[in-house]
Amino acid sequence: MKKIERAKKLVWDHHQVFQCPVCQHAFSKLSGNSLVCEQGHTIDFNRHGYLHFLNTQGTTEYDREMFLSRRKLLNAGLFRPIVEQVNEIIPEDPQTILDVGTGEGTPLVQLASFRNNKDFYVGFDISKPGITLATQLDVDAFFCIADLRHLPFADHSFDTILELFSPSDYREFNRVLKDNGTLIKVIPNAGYLLELRHLLYGDHNQHYDYDNSKVLKLFKKHYPNASVVRVRYQFELPSSLVTDMIKMTPMSWGKDVHQPTKTELENLNSVTVDVSLLVAKKEKSKI
Which CATH class is domain 51-192+203-234+273-281? Predict the structure, then answer.
């Protein structure tokens, strides 16, 4: 089955999850390669098999090369223990799962590999290069380009929202999350990629250290009963992926970033992965 045909079937089988980004009404029919809402607005599947829900092209600093480097590292297992822990938190019964800022989609593929294959997965991002790469993955998931602030999904449509190192809009999350649904936000701790951070910045630079306290405080303001699960481990970095390690992270974009020497790169043979999983249940009183 062609990508576009598979995507059309997947979306129409779960069309109640989606809503028109123009009028917020439900989609009422699938006509050719177009979804049509109750008010007659249409949105077309493109040849890659995804829907572009933005009114603009969308802009991001994350390009195709960055996402390809990220995919190499993730396929080598960089985030696999994180995804394993996420799977431990998500209930075993079939879920409708939204991956916020899915990028090129590999974490969602890894999560699906741990699951019972009865879930419905949706990954979205603002990045066209990322979503185009995601549609190439062999996974029964639907990917789309969408705005975090105006999600093209119906109220109370997801059992689980996963957000891995991405921005948040808690009002929108609460809107699309089912009552008693689970929100899992993954944030870096001070030790995250510490070796890389110290390689790229001197100890006088503001980027030399990292503090997630503001993000954690805001999350707990929205979800006072949230729990925190820490995941920390060393990832052995193959020499062939050192350059990709630097390419995949915005740490290397700073104006004061140090350009590592050949010897420094050769000595970068492991990195610390240190994150916190912020886990919350949506209460019925939330909108």
Answer: alpha beta
